[in-house]
Amino acid sequence: MRRIRSAIVQPTPRPRVEAVTRAAPRPEPASTTPTDVDLTVDLGRGLVLPNPILVASGTFGYGVEYGDVVDVDRLGAICCKGTTLKPRIGNPTPRVTETPGGMLNSIGLQNPGVDAVIEKYAATWATWSVPVIVNVAGESVSDYVEVTRRLEGVPGVAAIELNISCPNVGRGGRQFAIDPDAAGEVTVAVRRVTDLPLLVKLSPNVADIRPIAKAIADAGADALTAINTLSGIAVAPDRTKPLLGNIYGGLSGPAVKPIALRIVYEAAQAVRIPIIAIGGVTELADVLDFLAVGAVAVQVGTAIFADPTLPVRLVDELADECRRAGVASHHDLVGSALPKRAGSPSAKGVEYRP
After folding, report:
1. Which of 44, 50, 51, 254 could form a disulfide with 39 if both were Cys (CB 3.0 to 4.6 A apart)?
2. What's phi and psi for 175, nearest 5 deg?
């Protein structure tokens, strides 16, 4: 825990949750400052999040693991661990290693399978006011469809998030997320079997995110989440082989934030559905940056390992920032850095122009 904390060093010290919740309210600077701030996020199909601070899949377990240290009902939503049709034991060890500004993980979607997840956790989720979004993974379109079928109508399941950064065994192991046709195919297939709100998670491991985002939106997704981890490796201390047992891992943490910002910025110019940003959120400034490039909400991930109380604190800090700015809703901060007309994507090489 101490080493992970050092990898995501915060630029400024933060008060504990108690200091935030018990502090005296700031004086109203002007009559235009709202007395109440609307932080709700409408993702469609009846799913309205109480606030835009979510916890990312794979970093908060199934929510119950953090119940003693975090008031889960104060979160915008919980995205639970990736869930597959059958149980998975995960990848060989080592699975996790620290990197400058983040971490590499190669857990391999270890989970007990969808039926066990429903049996063990759904009844608890149904007692919470916080929405629980089940992250779904698979190796084929039929896998995604069947997992979603089993989640449909289960009390406590508020929405589906498709992790399409998985190999499509029917197409030579090529990830769904890097092919517009495959991304659209799995999205439309899942859309046909559920009335639950459907979020689809974008991969950063592509040259141009726009056609993929469009294909997913056209296939019926209600929202996008961006980004998943970047593919990377680490080298073993003796430098005779890669460190991770699976060779490849997913890079997350503050190091990926500029890439996440770029992908959200480009996707927001290509689609009209909501975008939830993920990638390196460690403080309020990160939240505000993602809102500026078009996200309506964020997911906090790697930083939770160092400070599980961070997401709840960000809810309070965002409300305070809206009051300071004299706006009634955080939606007034969304898109402030977007161009008036869609620009060229980074894949055009514009950053290398003389």
Report:
1. 51
2. -60, 140
